Amino acid sequence: MKQLMTRRQLLRLLAAAGLGPAIAQRTVADLASPAAARPKIAENQLAPPSNRPCYPAVMRDGRVIQPERPLAVIEETEVLVVGGGPAGFAAAVAAARAGARTALVERYGYFGGQWTGGLVLLVISSHAREDGRLVKVLQGVGGELLDRLSKIDGAIVHHKPDQFNPTTDPEATKFMMDEMIREAGVKVFLHCWVADVVMEGPVVRGVVFESKAGRQAILARVVIDATGDGDVFAAAGAEHERRFHAIGLVHRLGNADRAGLESLRANGIKSIGSIEPLPAVKWINLRGPSTDCLDIAELTRLEMEHRRSIWLRAQQLRQKPGGEPLFLLQTAPQLGVRISRLLAGVQQLTYEEARQGRSFPNTIAVGGAQNAHHRGWPIPYGVLIPRTLDQVIAAGRCICVDEKLIEDMRLLASCLTTGHAAGAAAALAVKTGRRPREVDIAQLQQLLLRQGAYLG
Amino acid sequence: MLTRIATRLGQRRASILSRCLALAVAAALAWPARSAAWTSVLLPALSPFLAIGSGLAARAAGWIALLALPVLALGLVRPRWFCRYGCPVGLLQESIRRCPKSRPAPIQRRPRLGPGLVLMTFAGAVLGYPLFLWLDPLAIFNGFWNAGRQPWTLPSVAAGLGLPLLLLLELILPRLWCHRVCPLGATQDGLAMIGRQLRRAVRRSSARSQPISAGGRLPPARRQFMAVCAGLAGAGFMRHVYPRPSAPPLRPPGAVEESRFIGLCVRCGNCAQACPSSIIRPDLGSSGWAGFLTPILRFDQDYCREDCRRCHQVCPSGAIARLSLEEKRRRVIGLAEVSLDACLLAQGRECTACLRRCPFDALDMHSPDGGFSNQPRVDLAKCNGCGACEAACPVRPARAIRVRETALAHPQAAR
Ligand SMILES: Cc1cc2nc3c(=O)[nH]c(=O)nc-3n(C[C@H](O)[C@H](O)[C@H](O)COP(=O)(O)OP(=O)(O)OC[C@H]3O[C@@H](n4cnc5c(N)ncnc54)[C@H](O)[C@@H]3O)c2cc1C
């Protein structure tokens, strides 16, 4: 209970004081306006009948057949971002700021993907070391998000100039992502699960998604696949590889500040979790077994098994001396899928190339080192562009790098920077009327620099 | 009389000219391009002192030993030929000598240490520990050049001090080194004497006996005997009594067993200079005082590449054995060891830096509690201690995975 109180207090704090009166006022006004625009609806009032046509699947010769049907196009936009995780968020903000009409479709009800919904709170690889100097590679949209979080009390830790790998509060992160998306003027569709693409010949023209409103379509000039799993490019038939990886479930313990750490240590519990901005809460990573994240039977089994073992383990902890006050605050709303599909891009970046810091003429971001003690590496534009598909750009943890490097590139900071680059590239492609693969690299790099990105 | 002076002068000029040339060649050999690192072995390999000492100690002689043969053969017929025409150290000393014309009066009174050093070294070598091999002037010369190409750190500066010290000595006590100490010079004296004996024997057999002019004399037999005993005792002490450090340092792959290594290594710095990963550093203490400036491995920046054996190729003394690439890959430098208290993976972080980096697939992920906590596990059958994991580990200040010395590192038992 205490935790929920703290949370509410935090939110109130955010709204009231967090970013100074100007932003707070704007925020409150924004929150108020959509509601004000709608006529007040009495509770439990009868709704008008839906005019949605029905096209149910039918049985034909013992097979389930989906009849052909027209889909409502609810939006036509220039840049469409699918997936609102770190990559999708950064892409949408960057594209909109670059002047493109931008929409974002997300299957869940919030932004941040694994970061907020997966409770993966530690932003690894935000920095690298160049000639002994600490360099911040996470700049641009993602860097701005962190900087703005640092202006809110209790939203981020380890974000001082000489620090790296900050940890953020998930609710503060969601809040600030909402803010930035709104400010950038991105049109958002939450609770919409993209199920397919709209193709015209070899070119992707938009996506089809499912929601409570049924199956609908959005058309776009360029689609950014930031689903983490490459749902868009896979649906469009782009070449890719599928990988099995460890799937876990992150969870959090409450009352961590009241636990007797000394006694717990004496009983073999070295740590109860990783630091969070809220002193009372710790988050715990769980690796889990390596399996197929596209197999729903596996996902179902894992979700339930993980939750069971997490519950049991938390109970065990509570029975240890010093662990009594601890409680299981939350298991992550999203299962922790690390790697699933990797794009076959026009260019592949390998672990060895990254290790040697190979430079590229088409660098669009710089990868950061695990603990900021090693060198960063340039990331070329080609890793975002499907080899065999047009009008789609990939970003985040499904881009074209080898199986070793993806372990670094899937970390939050890199997803934010590749997302930013994808967004800027998409906007530029729309503006200059070119295909994403033909975007002028010098122009793209200039745009990225203007948007505050770090290119080395 | 005049003609004699003239020829003397001519000889002198020829000697200086030839040695200047030799110095230039020596410097070029010792300062090779990275891709031609192997040339640095050529200069020290010319030394018969080094060749005999290391050959005895290592009980083996590679093709490198052949390089010393011409010098050795010429030494039999021409006393101190190499000193006069080849030695770069001698030339440098001569060039800074304050009064080149002054008679070497001061050193006449000093004892001749050279023959003793040579005898002690060769006697020790029989027991596997050539005591003063590191005094070879050509190794010292290389040590200077090699150190000059390293970034300036305390160990690298220390490793290059040999030649400057010799020059300093020359300023204080002119000619002392060349005429009284240098074991390479003394070896040539010995060779010259052997040559005379041989010639005398030949002449006797042809029944034309002639008086032999005095040259580089050898010390009296009693002293020779004492030097041999001292060499044997010293080597015995170093091999069996000298205390080993509790945590022996990591040596380049192929290094001979530790108690012989510190004796065989001539501190020429060739291996450190040739190493493309710059993981070989001169030691300032971790292997005890006797191991001063011997090469040790540090994996803080890089690791021992699986496709490289340059340190083997440039070692002039066989302290680092010449292994084939296949043998080298299998040779154990040490074994990786994980410190679970520091390991990020063990603390629930998304880190697999060491697992991905291992060129031998010797690391896998292991969970002692069904997936909650994980840790890297070392497959001791596959790990050869190349240090890739240590170099890749992002934990500071101490790495969470480190290569430790192991008894496995030296498959051949102490001989
Ligand atoms: C257990 C675990 C621990 C981790 N720990 C760390 C860590 O400590 N530090 C770190 O930096 N990184 C960590 N990572 C990695 C990092 O969290 C992810 O790789 C990163 O969030 C990927 O970002 P993304 O935007 O590419 O994809 P995601 O974060 O997966 O975001 C994808 C978004 O797209 C949405 N989406 C997916 N499919 C569809 C669809 N069909 N239609 C509509 N929307 C869709 C999802 O709902 C989600 O919001 C961890 C990952 C896991 C799984």
Largest sheet of chain A: 7 strands, mixed
Radius of gyration of chain A: 23 Å
Give the CATH level 1 class of the largest domain in chain A.
Answer: Alpha Beta
Please state the overall shape of chain A, judged from the principal axes of the Cα atoms: globular
Radius of gyration of chain B: 25 Å
How many domains in all of chain B? Answer: 2
Keyphrases for this structure?
A: 456 residues, alpha+beta, 2 domains, three-stranded antiparallel β-sheet, 12 helices, 32% helix, 23% strand, disordered N terminus, B: mainly alpha, Alpha-Beta Plaits, 20 helices, binds flavin-adenine dinucleotide
Report on the architecture of this protein:
The complex is a heterodimer of chains A (456) and B (415). Helix content of chain A is 32%, strand content 23%. Chain A has twelve helices and 23 strands. Chain A has helices at residues 2-18, 20-37, 86-97, 140-149, 170-184, 231-235, 261-266, 296-319, 351-355, 406-409, 412-432, 441-450, and strands at 58-60, 63-65, 72-82, 102-105, 127-130, 133-136, 156-157, 167-168, 187-189, 193-200, 203-211, 214-225, 240-242, 245-248, 251-254, 282-284, 290-291, 327-331, 336-337, 341-343, 363-367, 377-380, 392-394. In chain B, strands 1-2 form a two-stranded antiparallel ribbon. Chain B has a two-stranded antiparallel sheet with strand order 3-6. In chain B, strands 4-5 form a two-stranded antiparallel ribbon. In chain B, α4 packs across α13 (183-205). Chain B is elongated and about 90 Å long. Chain B starts with a helix and ends in an 11-residue tail after the last strand. The A-B interface holds A 122, 124, 248, 270-271, 273-274, 284-289, 309, 313, 338, 351, 369-374, 404, 407, 411 and B 341, 344, 347-353, 356, 365, 367, 370-372, 374, 392, 394-396. The site of flavin-adenine dinucleotide has 38 residues of chain A, from α3, β10, β19 and α11. Flavin-adenine dinucleotide binds at residues 82-88, 105-108, 113-115, 118, 120, 122-124, 193-194, 226-229, 231, 248, 250, 285, 336-338, 396-397, 410-412, 415 of chain A.
